[in-house]
Design goal:
about 200 residues, alpha/beta, Dna Topoisomerase Vi A Subunit, Chain: A, domain 2, two-stranded antiparallel ribbon, 7 strands, about 40% helix
Length: about 200
Amino acid sequence: MRISPLIDQLIEALQILPGVGAKSAQRMAFNLLQHNRQGASNLGRVLDLAMQNVGQCGACRTFSEETYCGLCTDERRDRSLLCIVETPADVLAIEKTAGYRGYYFVLHGRLSPIDGIGPGELGIPLLLERAGTLNIRELILATNPTVEGEITAHYISEAMAGKNLLITRIAHGVPIGGELEYIDGGTIAHAFNGRKSVE
């Protein structure tokens, strides 16, 4: 049933959020309109600002309002370590453990030829350049333990072969099929402590 053009558009717009279907979107829209118009206006304003001003860090590709993010400009971090992750949410999950002090590179996905996602879309040429710039000693592959994540990790380890550095894979304390952003900090810390060389 159609309610009104604007309300229908609002419900449809809310459905772009992960896990939000038509019923949840309708509840959200009605709640905002009925109980929290000021909060909804603020959400719209901040969302618009974020879309206009948040881009990718020029070095690690995580989200940043500046040319280079705070992690990449932190001189206290260990330049010999580079951790490869799939998403900016994975960076946040690892940082919450306070157990890793190196640098990152965010792929923004994983290899998936069926979906047209190859090395170029993941920025792997940029990764090779970043690894050379930092003079790293250890490359940590922290892609998710999914089929695509494993294929991506294998591809990167092959691309880095012969570069005279240690290539490690985080241990599988993280459940197979899991996503790093949903794993508790203790499990992530354990996985990092148990990482091993990729052979």
